[in-house]
Amino acid sequence: MTIRELAEKLNLKLVAGNGEKEVEGGIASDLLSYVMGKGKEDQIWLTIQIHENIIAVASLLGLAGIIIADGKIPGEGTVKSAEKHNVTLCLAKEKVFELSGKLYEIGVK
Amino acid sequence: MVPREKLKVKDFMTRDVITISPDQTIDDAKELMKNKGIAGLPVINGEQLVGIITISDIITALEKDKLKAKVLEVMTKQVIVLNSDETIKETLSRFRKYKIGRFPVLDNEKIVGIISIGDIVHKLANYMAIDQVEEGSKGDFWDTNEAWEDYDNFLEKGIVTKYEIMGGDFTKAGEAASGTKQFLQHIKINKEIIRRCAIATFEVEMNIVIHSNGGNILVLIKDTEIKVIAQDIGPGIPDIARAMVEGFSTAGDEIRALGFGAGMGLPNIKKNVDEFSIDSTVEEGTRVEFTIFIPKGLD
């Protein structure tokens, strides 16, 4: 499913990007180099990091997008960078653990 | 670019001076230095500079168990100061002569700034054109204003792009990696090679931002290989073998809070490239060089 569909199912807020990428699995981590090392193209990235550099990581790896969890709000710089690099950014109220579970349940494995 | 002879103290100094008063305690000074991450405090009485207290004074006070004593008792009263209009050339020779870490900057007897050797090094990377192209790499500097269509002629010899990286500047971090990725996509390089190159370039770029005082990255792209040379101006790595160990990082707490400092940067680079070398001299700088081969017929 696309991120847009995923966001609708889980009631996430889409704040940047068009959400059109198909999601193939996910990765949950707040360590950027960990994601750089283990992340795969088209995965959805769950994190509570909100600074601009997460966009660079998502863009360079070709991730499907980023879901910022735990009600955290990204800064203007991050949102602008996401628009500029065409990275889909979603916001979730749930903590990462819960969010992972819900994604798993709807088939993102 | 301002000619080097014209660079002045006021171009490099920190204007937000953190000061302390003579009747505060040495413990107050210690806490202030710790919280602000600095190693020296000018001592101010009203508007007048009356002395300076440095981290050496704190260490001595700790050894003698005198933390509760007043700053007045241990501060250096004969403070060497600079004028904001002095040239950096003069300032550098003063640093060499006096071997102290910082000078308060005074204009008309009022403190207007403070300058440390770190301030100069940090900003100098932007002023100096650090030419790191090694002999034998036959590249033409590719002007980003040139039409990309011209690249066909250059790909045999190689196109070199240089990115200046400022230490500590997280807002621009990732530009070298992302610029390189975009170019490789434009010349239709295989996706997997682009991915490996993007990861390695990002890691080497972040290392300069996180751990160094600044530097530059040269990206040489030929039709047969991509070579990246990342050079910084310090502080250098004392134990390279240790730095290569997965999970080991010297990143501070603030950096770790941003999700950096996982200790996977150098290992991530090594995993994704075909040739890798790292060289470092403490106080001079670190140079990381890697090559990714582009096999024929792959696109």
Short description:
The complex is a heterodimer of chains A (109) and B (299). Chain A has five helices and five strands. Chain A has 109 residues and is of the alpha/beta class.
Describe the structure using short key phrases.
heterodimer; A: 109 residues; alpha/beta; 5-stranded mixed sheet; 40% helix; globular; B: 299 residues; alpha+beta; 6-stranded mixed sheet; 12 helices; 11 strands; elongated
Explain what the structure shows.
The complex is a heterodimer of chains A (109) and B (299). Chain A has 109 residues and is of the alpha/beta class. Helix content of chain A is 40%, strand content 17%. Chain A contains 5 helices and 5 strands. Chain A has helices at residues 3-10, 32-38, 53-61, 76-85, 96-105, and strands at residues 13-16, 26-28, 44-47, 65-68, 89-91. In chain A, strands 1-5-4-3-2 form a 5-stranded mixed sheet, sandwiched between helices. In chain A, helix 2 links the parallel strand 2 and strand 3. In chain A, helix 3 packs parallel to helix 4 (76-85). Chain B is an alpha+beta fold and 299 residues long. Chain B has 12 helices and 11 strands. Chain B has helices spanning 9-12, 26-36, 55-63, 71-74, 88-98, 117-127, 151-154, 175-186, 191-211, 240-243, 253-257, 265-272, and strands spanning 40-45, 48-54, 82-83, 102-107, 110-116, 140-141, 159-166, 214-221, 225-232, 275-281, 285-293. In chain B, helix 8 (175-186) runs antiparallel to helix 9 (191-211) and helix 9 (191-211) packs antiparallel against helix 12 (265-272). Chain B is elongated and about 75 Å long. Mean pLDDT of chain B is 84; it is low at 129-151. Chain A binds chain B through residues 30-34, 36-37, 41, 47, 49, 51-57, 59-62, 77, 85, and chain B through 170-171, 173-174, 177-178, 181, 195, 198-199, 202-203, 206, 258-260, 262-265, 267-268, 271.
